[in-house]
Amino acid sequence: MLILIDGLRPDQITAAKMPNLYALQKSSAVFDAHHSVFPTVTRVNASTISTGTWPNQHDILSNLLYMPNESATPLTTGEERNLVLRAATHNDRILARPSISETMTAMGKHFVVITSGSSGAATLLAPEARHGTGTLINAGLDGGKRVAYPENVDQAIRQRFGVQAAHEGLTSVLWAQKVLREYVLPELPHDLVIDWMTEPDTSQHKYGVGSPQALAAIAAVDAEVGKLIATLRERGELADTDILITADHGFGDIAASVDLRPIYRAAGLQTDEVTALNDGPTSSFYIHPHSAADFRKKLTALSEALGSRQDVQLLFTRSLPGKGCKADAVKGSVAGTFALEKVHLCTHDGPDLVVSMRPTGEKSAFGEPGSVPVLRDTDGPSDSAATHGGLNPWMEHIPLICMGPDFSVARVVHAPSGNIDLAITMAALLDWHANSLDGRNLAVDNPRAASPVHHQYTVVGFGIRRHLNTTTYLGKEYVDDGER
């Protein structure tokens, strides 16, 4: 079983705030250097968890979709209908790589996803459920017309539990967890269950990290974890069940909102010459050129306008001057930028420039670290109090607790790990040796393995030295953070 607690930071798991998770940590394998995938947003990480591949492979590079032929403005990946719309131009594929739900179903195993989050995030975890592959439970499916695929599961849940709208915070969490405990576990065949709780993400976005509302949501989610563990124990299944508990990303409060329009003007660009997909403190830019020379001029000008700002952390461009990608590249084609390839975001039709914002170093009104500016296409304050998406420890560093017969007991694992590793680990636990995936199997306990290797890459440009910090372990490189 994989339990995802949306937006949970490791420093929130304390005896006072989350007594159930805190107790589980003491008796489980705790990976204390676990990483989200950059950009540290929900749907990018859901896609990586679903496929075991990096964003440049599964082709979900943001929480938004750039589809200029279908929409004049970016579309959210949070809605199933937008993913289905995109699939219509991608051989009816929502994800470019096979999901573990597809592979498990082909192996004759039973895969169940239950989530209280958006219909889009749910769909990315079981992208072919609409075609009969796996079981997907989410109250927002098909525009809210159904709560599950397949039909018999949809009807059973409606009759017994009614309908609770998805993605409405704690009320959605409580509904989904009740369905999990009282219907999924006792009645549905399941070899792997993914249980996604959308809190504390919803409360933290609205009220801020450390707010009374967010702390109440954290406590409620912790109580639901306790109920789930108790249910497994009562059913006699706990001792034989491997359970992985993690998050999709961390969180930080919004320090300021930066209007992109004056930056475009400073770069000599009109607003219709560039499209930005804004993921909080990280934005992905698509430039609309008239020629190759025009593209180069616009890309360089926009990079300079952003790169010379004190609140901009790192910039990424393709390593090659055109639209191609080069494996293992470090530096981007514009001086002062890193390669998009280094963070697995280079595709032929992907963004031309990705920019992350620099944390302020100041604490929020509730005394929490991790505050950061966000980029927007409008002026005025953000509608949210807190955010994620950035390349900093408070958003990159997330918890991972592993318990069950295939994991060590009461051990802290300091070797780096990431959400990229979850699919291959779950596959191995189900006797599927998925060597084609990008991660590594975390259930292999090898205390004699080589020590992690830390590396700092550096670029110089716009009068500033910028650094990208990574850690490599057993041939896998994890992006830690950026600095300048």
From TrEMBL:
GO terms, molecular function: hydrolase activity
Transmembrane annotation, as ranges: none
Stored Pfam families: Phosphodiest (PF01663)
Coiled coil regions, renumbered to chain: none
Superkingdom classification of source: Bacteria
Protein name: Type I phosphodiesterase / nucleotide pyrophosphatase
Species annotation: Terriglobus roseus
